[in-house]
Design a protein that fits this description.
This protein has 272 residues and is of the alpha+beta class. Helix content is 25%, strand content 29%. The longest helix has 17 residues. It is globular and about 50 Å long.
Length: 272
């Protein structure tokens, strides 16, 4: 699958971008969902990435560090679930990374979980790259779960709204390494919620191969003067539709029949 989106100029002024970033940051901090940006103003994709960048800058001002990137909507299952037609990306910060088996006590608004294949990079990547170059630059593939938590009420948003909100990134659960870096598209996953299997998939659900989305990401980052750095992690997109993550729930995934990863949610969230 190919992705055709390219950069266009922003229509919003810097002040407007900062205003929307401040509003999104406040909504998430207060735990109060809001209406999509696009419900009140015209929102282009580069406006959305500008807002995302301003939102990330606020996180960095509070001591967070960017440790990698997430891809959104690389699978048909997720595009169908959310009604979008293209992928997007958002930054991952150090405070989003959680170990497998943890119990999340953070206050979340409307969290969902999806299984993904992650990649860790030992070499930098910029410009136009191939699947083979993505794999060659990777040090490891690992099992992961992503907790998404949209700031927009009932997950009603456009691709642009979701992009402004960092592609709904909340937490990434990092699990064990996966064998077969050369055959990522063949890795299988059984996705379970509270002990019941809800979906199965293989790595090929991510646009045919997880590295295809990464190659697209590298190109998009390069257009913005950025790239993948040594040590970065990239989660390559949900392989199945996301499931709700309620209080007391446990969500797990088993990759290739033996590699297990899980996350639980406390019955009582911690106070803000």
């Amino acid at each position: 699958m190919s992705y055709d989106s390219e950069m266009s100029r922003t229509a919003m002024t810097p002040d407007e971008v900062e205003l929307w970033a401040t509003r999104l940051a406040a909504a998430r901090s207060e735990g109060v969902c809001c209406e999509p940006i696009s419900s009140g103003v015209e929102l282009g994709i580069e406006d959305a990435y500008a807002i995302q960048q301003a939102l990330t800058a606020k996180r960095l001002e509070h001591g967070q560090k960017v440790v990698g990137w997430k891809l959104g909507y690389t699978s048909l299952a997720m595009r169908s679930q959310m009604g979008v037609s293209e992928p997007n990306f958002g930054p991952l910060t150090n405070t989003m990374i959680v170990e497998s088996g943890a119990m999340l006590s953070a206050r979340l608004m409307q969290p969902r979980v999806e299984p993904e294949i992650g990649l860790c990079f030992r070499r930098s990547l910029r410009g136009e790259v191939s699947i083979a170059e993505v794999i060659a630059a990777s040090s490891e593939a690992f099992a992961c779960l992503e907790v998404v938590d949209s700031v927009f009420r009932d997950y009603r948003f456009t691709l642009e709204d979701n992009t402004a909100d960092g592609s709904s990134a909340a937490f990434v659960i990092v699990g064990p390494g996966l064998a077969g870096l050369q055959k990522l598209e063949e890795i299988s996953v059984s996705f379970r919620r509270n002990g019941l299997e809800v979906a199965t998939a293989t790595g090929s659900a991510a646009s045919g191969h997880p590295a295809i989305g990464v190659a697209w990401l590298v190109h998009q980052l390069s257009l913005r003067g950025e790239g993948i750095r040594p040590g970065d992690i990239v989660i390559t997109g949900g392989l199945t539709a996301a499931v709700p993550f309620g209080l007391g729930d446990c969500v797990e995934a088993v990759f290739d029949g033996s590699t297990h990863i899980s996350i639980g949610r406390a019955r009582r969230p911690s106070p803000r």
